[in-house]
Amino acid sequence: MEDAAHLAGVPDEFQRLWTPHRMAYIQAGPEPLRHECPFCEAPKHPDAERLIVARGETAYVLLNLFPYNSGHLLVCPYRHIPTYDEATPEEVAEIGALTQIGMRVLRQVSHCDGFNLGMNQGAIAGAGVDAHLHQHIVPRWNSDANFFPIIAKTKALPQLLGEVRETVANAWPA
To answer: Does 134 qualify as catalytic in the annotation?
Structure first.
């Protein structure tokens, strides 16, 4: 294998963080799905295309396009509702069950040490998509907090979203 110093280009002090999955946003132009709800739109497409890992009767699970960590899942009801108190008892039960399964699957495939679970309801509470209820499942590792997010406001994600989706979907119980 050749030493990088002998390849074309001028060496500089910059580090490169390759994130090829972000090309989808660049190619889609500014604010893709600005006029449609991404969580209503996703189930209308093939699972791999929209990063869906599992589908239930009233809710489904997909990878977050803007993950805090590799394997960051979202559990969404199919119905377009903004807050948890508007969910039916069936939706609440399935969101809870899918969350538990998601945690078990992530523990199995990524060997995480813990989780952050949460629902940001309303723009004022930090919801990126405030019109459609969704539960976050963020896997955490003892060593996942390093200087990047604190100093450089950058998250280093070791796997591409498509690879994570395939791993999680394949491990999801039938």
So the answer is: yes
